[in-house]
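Running co-folding for flavin-adenine dinucleotide.
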Amino acid sequence: TFDVLVVGGGPAGAAAAVYAARKGIRTGVVADRFGGQVLDTMAIENFISVPHTEGPKLGAALEAHVRDYDVEIMNLQRAQKLEPVADGYKVTLESGASLTGRSIVLATGARWRKMGVPGEEQYLNKGVAFCPHCDGPLFKGKRVAVIGGGNSGVEAAIDLAGLVAHVTLIEFDKQLRADDVLQRKLRSLANVTILTSARTTEVIGDGSKVIGLHYENRADGQQQSLAVDGIFVQIGLLPNTEWLKDTLDISPRGEIIVSASGETSLPGVFAAGDCTTTPYKQIIIAAGEGAEAALSAFDHLIRTSAP
Ligand code: FAD
């Protein structure tokens, strides 16, 4: 039995593991893919004190830092069930094996919903982006499209409009779904065009980077094209929490509901990073929350263990 069993090996899980191990308690990390989403990104320029790094490099550094400590890393293992047992919780893996922890830190992250159109995969990180806070500055002075007219799409379009030359917001439905206050702000911006009833059908590139996209005008069925250098896909962030449904309290968006110190609805189970209700999904925030969840887990252990 681990004192702290961390599920997830992204920035949140890695930070939790380091913080737990530094308390001298038995710490384990089980991860489907150690490194997490950072492995899928190229330039990272907002991890404070590191002006520039690359995803795979940061992923390797996270793992190396955890390996500096006496932490058992179980990589390429997917958790599929969490249940209470006498002295804590049992996590069952897809392999059939199970692990127990007196406390648990859930840090399973999230994934961006993709459009599923030709060209999208090929041009990921080559013009196709998901995070305006991360990649917005790369498109300074250029033309971009934002796909999705919900709150995140409209927020992204407003944010990008201050950095780039022009933003085209593309919404599938007849109207935007974002809050009125955001829509009003968006419509007040001179360098934004809004297209509704528009279905993106293809990402177009020149072999090395995005040069535009095709969309169908759903009103008349006509194919149209748009020249852009960047496409920000904002059609949903899906937390990796399907396996926890019916186990603990989850928001309507599938996020684990956490308190300011990372507590979940189950005593002794904490959560951190992109899988939680924390609003901004960023590496530095996930890492900070991982640290916080581990400290909360330690606090829980010293209050509940026999003297
Ligand atoms: P994740 O990084 O998602 O890690 C989750 C971990 O849990 C992984 O190890 C995964 O394999 C594991 N896991 C999931 N389900 C299970 C399961 N059932 N069992 C076991 N393990 C499981 N943020 C920035 O701050 N700056 C950037 O420049 C930036 N660029 C980005 C570019 C791209 C293309 C993407 C996709 C994201 C980017 N982000 C950036 C966001 C950032 O990567 C995330 O906010 C951050 O990685 C979240 O960390 P996390 O530990 O919460 O989750």
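Result summary
The chain has six helices and 19 strands.
Helices lie at 11-21, 55-67, 132-135, 151-161, 180-187, 283-304.
Job closed.
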